[in-house]
Design a protein that fits this description.
The complex is a heterodimer of chains A (320) and B (293).
Chain A lengths: L1 H6 L6 H38 L21 H8 L8 H5 L16 H32 L5 H13 L2 H14 L6 H26 L2 H9 L4 H12 L1 H17 L2 H6 L8 H9 L6 H21 L1 H10 L5
Helix pairs in contact in A: 2-14, 3-14, 5-8, 5-11, 5-13, 6-8, 8-11, 9-10, 11-15, 13-14
Chain B lengths: L6 H31 L18 H8 L1 H32 L6 H13 L2 H12 L5 H8 L13 H29 L3 H9 L4 H30 L2 H6 L11 H11 L3 H29 L1
The chains are: A mainly alpha (320), B mainly alpha (293).
Chain lengths: 320, 293
């Protein structure tokens, strides 16, 4: 650390200076790590904390950072809300006389919407693998005329803004009579997931040696068999990355779902969640509980599969 | 070069057919159909009369005052966001490039904002910014920075910056991860050489680290700019373009025109302008990535 040697050039010997520099470095790292942890986690922690507060406690001024009487009532309200017994102002106020009822009648849609999200995401994942894997194999391992053009074509489709697709999608889907169906979401989500999936897979396949392909072909495998028996087992990490990204993108997608869904038959979690936030009569404690439910699955996925996600993100990225 | 439609071409075509079919259907066809629509006056409130109007939707657009307001808002939002993302992500990537215990835990923590759905991110910040009971007022009040609760999202001068903050919080992890790759790819002998030449920490950062990161930095910035100018979710949930037109960005303008005024022709024209700007921006992005695979 040269600044140090300049300011302390006199009596302190080299080793001691090194020690001070090392200490200073540790201090900066510690401070940085602390700031980063707070930056990334504090907002979420506050959301989680307030989802365990009663409707009365959540309006404290200044706020209670830790719930004084932690309660599960917000989550219970979500899980017990069913078609038969709608939780309304009247039925709710009996339980919590202090604040009356702030549970919306749409609360019962929350759990079904999570199923919708799950179904859509799963189908999109499967379709991504089905179309992405063979394409990536061809682009990475077959030297054919038009390969570069195909690569650029897929990259261009990757940068099309989703909002530019909304109008044409809407008109076509309406004409097909597919508005308010899960199918419309599955189809349109392919536009925002497939290009990136192919991209990750191509990068990975290119890293596998060409000799594998040749060896398999010499042994009498067809191209398809070579892909299935040789490359697929080796490319597991990239397949996991594709599954994760596609799943998270579909689970989190909002704009297209907002345009094409109308009822609980097809509404995904983000849509139901967004409807809560625009209703001023709903307590924030309830909205926050719903928000926590939306956050938990993707965060668990991200934390558990951290390694795959980081390698997938960086595969598609910036190697200088 | 092999024969134009030799064995390789035929088998490649077979493998590529599904993906091409899908992308033709969900990307190429819609984008051209959108161009076609933008030449008509299509109002869903008047389904039987959809006259061809040529470029009228585009000329109307450029003479519309609110459109230019939305352009200014979008540019403000994007410049503020992307600058903040660049600075914060650079700091984080420098931190994660150090070797210390707990580094992996830290990079896992960093993935939390990235994984959270935008809608949940939006409702979280809406609650934090809440002028009555939110955490922002709470923290500032308890630390004595303010002596009474303030209005945040409802204050025109602050709105766009507060939304940008929510956007930055969610986008920073990805940018940091990508910059970290670019940091790690700097050969260590460059640093050794600089050290031998007597360069200090700061000089090594300026003369070795930053220039070596430039290509990676460019890609990240272009990518984040593309994300910022099309961003919709936060504006929908936090402010609906308000207060007044303080957060009336282009994507919100398109949404209002298309789905509230039910004017699909002009909505398509607007989104086409956005798509063209994106394509222009993405030129470098596509060239660089395309050369790599």
């Amino acid at each position: 650390m040269s600044q140090f040697s300049q300011t302390n050039s006199g009596g302190i010997d080299y080793r001691r200076r090194q020690k001070v520099a090392r200490l200073l470095q540790h201090l900066v790292i510690l401070l940085g790590a602390a700031v980063l942890t707070i930056y990334a986690l504090a907002p979420v922690t506050w959301l989680v904390s307030s989802s365990f507060q009663t409707e009365a406690e959540i309006v404290s001024v200044p706020p209670h950072w830790i719930p004084e009487e932690p309660t599960l009532q917000n989550f219970e309200a979500i899980f017990s809300a069913t078609e038969e017994e709608e939780i309304t102002y009247e039925t709710r106020s009996g339980q919590d006389p202090a604040s009356g009822g702030y549970i919306p009648s749409t609360a019962k849609n929350l759990i079904p919407s999570m199923w919708n999200s799950l179904i859509v995401a799963s189908l999109v994942v499967v379709l991504n693998l089905l179309v992405g894997v063979p394409a990536a194999y061809a682009l990475a391992k077959i030297r054919f005329w038009g390969r570069d053009a195909s690569v650029y074509f897929i990259l261009i489709t990757r940068v099309i803004p989703d909002i530019a697709l909304v109008v044409p999608f809407f008109l076509v889907i309406r004409k097909l009579g597919m508005l308010d169906s899960l199918g419309s979401l599955v189809l349109t989500y392919l536009a925002v997931t497939v290009p990136f999936s192919v991209f990750i897979l191509v990068q990975y396949f290119e890293g596998l040696p060409d000799e594998l392909d040749k060896a398999a072909r010499v042994d009498g495998c067809s191209r398809f068999q070579a892909l299935l028996r040789v490359f697929l087992p080796l490319s597991l990490p990239s397949l996991v990355a594709v599954v994760l990204f596609t799943f998270l993108t579909s689970w989190n997608e909002f704009l297209l779902a907002l345009m094409f869904t109308q009822t609980e038959a097809s509404q995904t979690l983000p849509i139901v969640l967004a409807a809560f936030t625009s209703d001023f009569t709903i307590s924030f404690s309830f909205i926050n509980a719903a928000g926590v439910l939306a956050i938990v699955p993707p965060v668990i996925v991200a934390v558990v599969f951290e390694r795959y996600i980081v390698s997938g993100l960086t595969a598609g990225a910036v190697k200088g | 070069m092999r024969h134009l439609f030799g064995y390789e071409e035929r088998s490649a075509a077979l493998f590529l057919a599904p993906v091409m079919l899908v992308l033709m259907g969900v990307a190429v066809f819609p984008i051209f159909y959108s161009l076609y629509i933008s030449f008509f006056r299509i109002k869903l409130t008047r389904p039987n009369r959809t006259p061809f109007v040529g470029l009228d939707n585009y000329t109307d657009l450029f003479t519309n005052e609110l459109f230019w307001v939305s352009v200014v808002r979008t540019v403000t939002f994007s410049v503020v966001s992307v600058t903040a993302i660049a600075v914060i992500a650079l700091l984080i990537s420098l931190l994660l490039n150090q070797n210390f215990r707990g580094r992996r835990v830290l990079s896992t923590i960093l993935l939390v904002p990235w994984a959270i759905p935008y809608v949940a991110n939006a409702l979280m910040w809406k609650w934090i910014y809440d002028s009555g009971y939110g955490a922002l007022n709470g923290v500032l009040y308890q630390l004595d920075f303010i002596d009474k609760y303030m209005i945040w999202l409802g204050d025109q001068d602050k709105t766009i910056f507060l939304i940008a903050n929510a956007f930055v919080w969610k986008e920073v992890p990805l940018a940091a991860i990508l910059l970290l790759v670019s940091l790690k790819s700097i050969p260590s002998d460059l640093y050794q050489a600089a050290r031998v030449d007597g360069a200090g920490v700061w000089q090594r950062f300026i003369h070795v680290t930053l220039p070596a990161m430039k290509p990676g930095f460019m890609l990240v910035m272009i990518y984040e700019t593309m994300m910022a100018i099309r961003h919709f979710d936060l504006f929908f949930i936090l402010t609906e373009g308000g207060p007044g037109d303080a957060s009336h960005v282009l994507s919100w303008h398109i949404y209002v025109e298309t789905f509230r005024n039910l004017s699909f022709g002009s909505g398509a024209a607007m989104s086409y302008v956005l798509a063209l700007v994106t394509f222009a921006l993405s030129y470098v992005f596509i060239r660089t990535l395309g050369r790599r695979i």
